[in-house]
Amino acid sequence: MHTLDDLDVKGRRVLVRADLNVPLEGETITDDGRIRASVPTIKALSERGAKVIVCAHLGRPKGEANPKYSLKPVAARLQELLGVPVVFAEDVVGESAQSEANALHDGQVLLLENLRYEPGEESKDDATRRAFAEKLAALAELYVGDGFGAVHRKHASVYDVPQILPHAAGGLVVAEVEVLKKLTDDVERPYVVVLGGAKVSDKLGVIANLLTKVDRLLIGGGMAYTFLKAQGYEVGNSLLQADQLDQVRGFLKEAGERGVDLVLPVDVLAATGFDKDAAFEVVEATAIPGDREGLDIGPRTRELFAGKLADAKTVFWNGPMGVFEFEAFAGGTKAVAEALIASDAFTVVGGGDSAAAVRQLGLPEDGFSHISTGGGASLEYLEGKTLPGLEALQ
Questions:
Q1: What pTM does this model have?
Q2: What is the pLDDT of residues 117-145, one digit of tens each?
Q3: Mean pLDDT of the chain
Q4: Is there a contact between 351 and 373 (Cβ–Cβ < 8 Å)?
Q5: CA proximity to 69, closest of 109, 118, 33
Q6: The pLDDT of residue 286 is above 90
Q7: Which DSSP helix (H) or strand (E) runs through 67?
Q8: Which residues contact 326 (CB under 8 A, 6 or more apart)?
Q9: What is the pLDDT of residue 37?
Q10: pLDDT tens digits for range 58-103
Q11: Which end of the chain is more exposed for a tag (fewer CB within 10 A), N or C?
Q12: DSSP 3
C-alpha cells in the first residue's frame, strides 16, 4: 500500500475517509476515541498544505438525511482536537459540499455531512454505488483511506473512490494492518485469544480460523452460555443461541483434537433479571438456577483467566466478559483488562465494546500495546477474509 509519504499533497484537495462513528447522547459525544485516532492523519495532511476534505459515516440513517445522525457535533470536537477551524458542509456531495470544497485554502479542513445520508454509499448495486463515488471523488484530487473501522465494507467511500482517484493509506490504517499481521504472521507464543460479547454467531468464522492458530481460547460474555449449554449444562435465562449448539459442539471437539486449551467460565454472577440494580449471586457455571441469568463471569473465573494470560506472549481480546455498562457486572471485563495491562505480552484490544469498556472503566489506554478502532474489521481480518477497503488501497 502507498502511504502519505507517497503523495504530493500541497495545494491539492485530499479526500480523507475517516472513521468518526462515535456514540452520541443527543448532541453529546460519549466516547471520542475514534475521532482522536483520526486526528494524526488529518493533522499531517493539513500541516503539509493539503486542502483536507474529511468524509465519514455515523449510525444507520439508511440513505436519508436525519438530524439524529448529523456529524455536526463531531465537527466541533474535531476542531477542538486539531486546534484549527473545521468547516462543516450541510450535505455530502450537494451545493454546500461543492462550494465549501472549492473555497478551501491550503491547510484548511472541511468535514462533509454523514455519508450514509446518501443511498449510493451502501448500495449493493455496483452502478448506483459507483455513480455516488464519482460525485464524491469529484470534490477532490487525491484520496486517503484512513477509516479502518469501515474497511470490511464494500461501500462507495471505502471501495469505489480509491479506484477513481490516486490514493494512499492513512497512518491509522497502516498501523492497524501492521498490528494485525503480528497476530497472524510469525506470532510469538503462547498466543491467547479472549472472546466475549453477546453472540457466538457474530464470531463463528473467527473462532473456526483461530482454532488453527492459537494456544488458548478464553470464552466469556453472553456467548459463553451457548458453550456451556453445548456441554450439557443448564443456563437458566442466560443468553443462548440454541441454533448454534451443533456448531459450538464442533468447536469444542476440534479444540480437543488440536490441543487448544479452550477455557470457559467456572462461576458466574447470576442475576434475577437484566437490570443494573438486579439482585445476583455467585453460582457455579454448571449450576445456573432456572430463574436466573448470567451477567458476568465470577471471581474464580477472573482468577482463572488472569492465570491463563500471565505467561502469554501475544494476546488478542475482543468482547466484554459481562454487561460492563452496569457497574455491578463490570468486574469481569475489568479483571481481564487489568490482566492484559499486567502482562508482558503484545496485547491488542479488538475495538468495539472492548475499546469502549477500557475507556468507560477508566483504564490507561497506554497499558495495552494497541487498541484497535475497528472491531468488525479486526475480526474479519483474523477470520482470513479479504477486506474490500484494504484491497482497494493495495
A1: 0.89
A2: 999 999 999 999 999 999 999 999 999 99
A3: 96
A4: yes
A5: 118
A6: yes
A7: none
A8: 275, 276, 295
A9: 94
A10: 999 999 999 999 999 999 999 999 999 999 999 999 999 999 999 9
A11: C
A12: B
pLDDT value, residue 186:
81
Q: Which amino acid is at 381?
A: Y
Assigned C-alpha cell, 281: 449471586
Pairing state of beta strands 24-25 and 28-29?
A: antiparallel
What would the grid cell of residue 47 be? 500541516
What pLDDT was estimated at residue 57? Answer: 98
Residue 282 exposure: Cα atoms within 13 Å on the Cβ side: 12
- The string of pLDDT tens digits covering residues 248-269 is 999 999 999 999 999 999 999 9
> Which residues pair with residue 169 across a beta bridge?
3, 145
User: Which residue, chain included where needed, has cell 484520496?
Assistant: 143
Q: 59 burial class (0-12, 13-18, 19+ CB within 10 angstroms)?
A: middle
Query: Helix crossing, 352-360 with 375-383: angle to 10°?
Result: 140
| The predicted structure's pLDDT at residue 85 | 96
339 to 140, 312, 317, 347, 370: CA distances (angstroms): 46, 11, 11, 10, 15
- Which residues share a beta bridge with 317? 194, 349
Which grid coordinates belong to 385? 477474509
C-alpha cell at 163: 479506484
What is the signed CA dihedral for 326, 328, 332, 336, rounded to 10 degrees? Answer: 70
Separation CA 245–CA 226 (nearest Å): 7
Active site residues: 34, 199, 352, 376
Residue 284 has a CB neighbour count (10 Å cut-off) of 14
Three-state DSSP class for 184?
A: helix
Burial class (CB in 10 A: 0-12, 13-18, 19+), 277: exposed
For 256-375, list the strands marked E by DSSP.
Answer: 261-263, 267-271, 280-284, 293-297, 314-318, 346-349, 370-371
d(CA 203, CA 198): 10
Name the helix (H) or strand (E) containing 192: strand 191-195
Burial degree of 243 (CB within 10 A; 0-12, 13-18, 19+)? exposed
